[in-house]
Amino acid sequence: MKGPAPVEVEISKLLSDRRSPYAFDPERDVSETDMRALMEAARWAASASNIQPWRYIVGVRGRSDEVRERVHSVLLGGNQPWTANAPVLILTVVNTENDGKPNVSAEHDMGLASAQLTVEATARGLVVHQMAGVDLAAANAEFGIAKPERVLTALAVGYQASAEVIPENYARRDEAPRTRKSIDDMIVVGSL
After folding, report:
1. Pairing of strands 54-60, 88-95
2. Is the pLDDT of residue 139 over 80?
3. Is 51 exposed, middle or buried (CB count within 10 Å of its CB: 0-12, 13-18, 19+)?
4. Cis omega before residue 6 (within 30°)?
5. Whole-angstrom Cα distance, residue 191 to residue 151?
6. CA spacing 20 to 30 A to 141: which of 57, 63, 75, 153?
């Protein structure tokens, strides 16, 4: 398992400890208390005009197994092998309109809600792997999601395990060094 992110400037441990592993402990479930806290963290994310254009489809092993299996079924093939162990699978749903007009910040707001969910998960010793690898048409059809709403991404939530519980190609990713662009590379115009 990788350690904290190699940061350029000291930041909160909740952020530097956050990781997106492929290896989830197949024996540990996530409590309802923890799941409620993750949703509460998402609920209080900032949103443009306080529209809160996000919703979640949540499948939790042992409590909503049928939903979890349906979410798993719409993940793209590359995500299905490693998500099989994740006790919680979530689809994000975003409403792209407000009062019949396009909500241009809807995806941004959905991302912020999921980011807050992820930070709360880290604070509770959980890990979250966010993914775009979803068959979006199948997901919308499977759960009856229609415009102006649409499925956007997926999240796997649980406790990190050693890489031995996943296929080798995913294990190599989990064990690879953590890297990011530099702070300077993120700034297009201006300076710190």
Report:
1. antiparallel
2. yes
3. middle
4. no
5. 37
6. 63
The reply to whether the predicted model has a pTM over 0.70 is yes
Tell me the per-residue pLDDT of 84-132, one tens digit each, with 9 for 90 and over.
999 999 999 999 999 999 999 999 999 999 999 999 999 999 999 999 9
Hey, what are 192's tokens? 């710190």
> In the prediction, which pLDDT does 3 show?
76
Q: Two tokens at 55? A: 């919703």
Fold topology of 13-160: NADH Oxidase (3.40.109)
Decide: residue 102, CB within 10 A, 0-12 exposed, 13-18 middle, 19+ buried.
exposed
Which H/E stretch holds residue 130?
Answer: strand 127-131
Of 114, 151, 147, 149, residue with least CA distance to 136: 151
Q: Which backbone phi and psi does 32 adopt, to 5 degrees? A: -65, -35
Report the candidate in 183, 164, 148 with the shortest Cα–Cα distance to residue 21.
Answer: 164
Residue of 79, 60, 106, 91 lying closest to 169 (CA atoms): 79
- 172: its two tokens: 């190599």
